[in-house]
Inverse folding.
């Protein structure tokens, strides 16, 4: 299994404890096509295995409604739980909007600090 991958929107790497860390690039805009690519690449990297995800969205400038809906449903495949890293006010607002309106079917919480996010994800390893 590969440990690292990068596309036009994000970088993906496995942490030593079995958590997949996804970091969106700075200033990226996510539309439906971008969301499909991000999920497709994640699934290829995971090779059919389910993992907890540490997802840093601080670089996202905007994500449209179709992309949010796709990530909430199709993007939940092979994910045990998601901890979203945010930075007030922009990415925090994006995360709250996503969780409130898209209702992801897996445990999903947002955090300002990676340490807190990892504590949350450790329950799902």
């Amino acid at each position: 299994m590969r440990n690292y991958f990068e596309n036009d929107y994000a970088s993906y790497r496995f942490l030593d404890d079995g958590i997949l860390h996804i970091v969106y690039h700075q200033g990226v805009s996510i539309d439906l096509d971008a969301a499909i690519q991000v999920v497709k690449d994640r699934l290829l990297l995971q090779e059919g295995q389910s993992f907890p995800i540490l997802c840093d969205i601080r670089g996202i400038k905007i994500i449209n409604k179709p992309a949010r809906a796709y990530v909430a449903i199709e993007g939940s495949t092979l994910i045990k739980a998601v901890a979203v890293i945010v930075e007030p006010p922009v990415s925090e607002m994006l995360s709250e909007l996503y969780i409130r309106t898209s209702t992801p079917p897996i445990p999903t919480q947002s955090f300002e600090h990676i340490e807190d996010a990892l504590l949350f994800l450790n329950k799902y390893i």
In short: Residues 4-124 form a domain with the Transcription Regulator spoIIAA fold (CATH 3.30.750.24). The two ends are 17 Å apart (CA to CA).
